[in-house]
Design a protein that fits this description.
single chain; 2 domains; 7-stranded mixed sheet; binds pyridoxal-5'-phosphate; Aspartate Aminotransferase, domain 2; 4-stranded antiparallel sheet; alpha/beta
Length: 373
């Protein structure tokens, strides 16, 4: 029997949620196969690790210590203890999330009230805007410079107005550049009491040697802060959802933890993250391969005439001087998925994840062909 759909409802919805812009997730594999008619998709849209994950993770998930029938520890005690040792910090300052994206939501819930102001960058990581908007906050976005870098002067001016939160990803998704030591110090110096600095370091492990470590730099800064890290990228656990917040104080950590759901990190994710952390050698070798490919691919794209942003991440962001969705459609025909940027003013940019060398070769060859047309 067919169900009748009521054309309208008088149910009042939360306007902050109902009015949210959609999160622009990368194209999924089934859709890409259907649209391209091909099976061998080069998945360069979601910044996943092309090397997979450590074999120690798969072994841990197959071992008897993984008990899916038990509720997992809501406090993630074993993982937080391991992270505390690795990072030389009090585990009480760490809150683990169902992906670091859950921590972006929990921080917003913990700190923001309707009408509060938030500063972030544009182009932006969608959730740095969406989660504050969900709380009824006003979001000010500072554009990247012509050189495709952080506009520190404009950020300083915006921060001087004492927003409740500043969300900065460094290395920056989607641009790729990272704050160097002096830029990070300049940002820290601009902070005033009453503002929380959230430094999202999802791509920390891909940065070149000598790049600042936000946890170390902020530790004794006296600035209220949270540093976000994730197991989704360099550790290759995107599908399991586990990331964490390192907070500047115990009370801040307590309130952020209160803003998450109690059993937020499932048993598989906790088991996998502990195993991944114990095999840091695998992660470092993988990140090294990505860095080498990033240099090679960036040079090849520049040789094709694209303006490529300097990258400290596992992706490249480049100006294709025309509507990037057309170029993305051309690549999809060749079974390559990338992310055409859709934020206003940035529709000429395309973000491509660094894949295996063969995937990167396919991307370069396909772009060469599309550019020559
Ligand atoms: C990928 C990414 C994350 C990680 O999200 P998870 O929820 O941990 O998978 C967080 N912040 C930025 C800027 C990212 O690009």
């Amino acid at each position: 029997m067919e169900q009748s759909v009521k054309p309208t409802s008088s149910l009042p919805l939360n306007p902050h949620i109902a009015g949210l812009p959609p999160y622009n997730a990368g194209m999924n594999i089934a859709m890409a196969r259907a649209l391209s008619g091909r099976h061998d998709i080069a998945r360069l849209a979601s910044n996943e690790n092309p090397d997979g994950c450590s074999p120690a993770v798969l072994a841990a998930l197959a071992s008897s210590s993984f008990e899916p029938w038990r509720y997992a520890d809501p406090a993630c005690t074993a993982l937080r203890t391991a992270l505390g040792e690795r990072l030389a910090i009090d585990p009480g300052l760490i809150v683990v999330g169902n992906g670091s994206e859950e921590m972006i939501a929990a921080i917003s819930r913990a700190v923001l009230v309707p009408g509060a102001s938030v500063v972030t960058t544009v182009p932006s990581f969608g959730l740095h805007e969406i989660e504050p908007l969900a709380m009824g906050a006003d979001v000010v976005k500072i554009a990247m410079t012509h050189e495709m870098d952080f506009d520190l002067a404009a950020l300083e001016t915006a921060i001087a107005a004492v927003p409740r939160i500043v969300f900065i990803s460094s290395p920056w998704n989607p641009v790729g550049s990272g704050l160097d030591h002096s830029s990070l110090q300049r940002l820290i110096g601009a902070m005033r009491p009453g503002t929380l600095l959230v430094l999202d370091e999802a791509y920390f492990e891909f940065a070149d040697a000598g790049a600042p470590d936000g946890i170390e730099v902020l530790r004794d800064s006296g600035v209220d802060h949270v540093v976000l890290r994730t197991f989704s990228k360099a550790y290759g656990l995107a599908g399991l959802r586990v990331g964490y917040a390192v907070c500047s104080g115990l009370e801040l950590a307590r309130v952020i933890a209160a803003a998450k759901t109690p059993f937020n990190v499932n048993a598989a994710a906790q088991t996998a993250a502990i195993a991944a952390l114990a095999d840091e050698g695998w992660m470092k070798a993988s990140a090294g391969r990505v860095r080498a490919e990033r240099v090679r691919a960036a040079a090849a794209l520049a040789a094709l005439g694209f303006r490529v942003a300097p990258s400290q991440t596992n992706f490249l962001f480049f100006d294709c001087k025309g509507d990037s969705s057309r170029l993305a459609a051309g690549l999809l025909k060749q079974a390559i998925i990338v992310k055409a940027w859709r934020e206003g003013g940035y529709e000429h940019y395309l973000r491509a994840t660094i894949g295996l060398p063969a995937d990167n070769d396919r991307l370069i060859a396909a772009l060469q062909e599309l550019v020559a047309r």
